[in-house]
């Protein structure tokens, strides 16, 4: 799986981004910089496609200061134009507005009617966390509209298979250049492109809360997921888990359902 010509893949993806942006009648690309491997690779591909018309947005939202630093270092290393806009205050104001407008929006009320306390806590936690990527999506499209750019997403094939993204959040994009590369292949491409080793080896995370990691949340390693996607190799329990997650999240990859009668 990893024995691929990553230089050719890089060149093909740069041309693909140029084609998609030009076909849309746009002039460049805007992308969120998270300090992670997917956004680092995607932003560098965009920079190669549109050296003067690529904008990276660093959008901290009660998130890891280290990720912010990694994102800045990456942008400056490769001369990617970027803006930093902290969304922590708007996020907090959003929560306060909800709490002031609806007194029932609190954990005690969320628990009411739930069979298990743990389920209620998880639902509440996810509802809050998913607001962050949706705020980021709004800001990305503001700058896309402002500059006549496309919003370029960072979703890879592994995430798309599982539906592991926030609907209308980091899934709210125009194009996904990494959509045909599994996570291990993205790492191979990152090495080819000279991405910093720290970014390549850091634990994948959506940055939704402190200590959150993709593999802990999914309950599977990307190696297990990737080999199943590419080669069909997996323990029966692993394969069943992947397909169960994929089926449950399939709505994220589809247009809104409408009646057919």
TrEMBL record:
InterPro entries reported for this sequence: NAD/GMP_synthase, NAD_synthase, NH(3)-dep_NAD(+)_synth, Rossmann-like_a/b/a_fold
Record GO terms (molecular function): ATP binding; glutaminase activity; metal ion binding; NAD+ synthase (glutamine-hydrolyzing) activity; NAD+ synthase activity
Record-level GO cellular component terms: cytoplasm
Entry EC no(s): 6.3.1.5
Pfam families (alphabetical): NAD_synthase
Reactions catalysed, as given in the entry: deamido-NAD(+) + NH4(+) + ATP = AMP + diphosphate + NAD(+) + H(+)
Binding residue positions for ATP: 32-39, 154, 183, 205
Binding positions (Mg(2+)): 38, 159
UniProt keyword Glycoprotein present: no
Keywords assigned by UniProt, alphabetized: ATP-binding, Ligase, Magnesium, Metal-binding, NAD, Nucleotide-binding
Alphabetical list of SUPFAM superfamilies matching this protein: Adenine nucleotide alpha hydrolases-like (SSF52402)
Subunit structure: Homodimer.
Protein name, per record: NH(3)-dependent NAD(+) synthetase
Biological source species: Halanaerobium kushneri
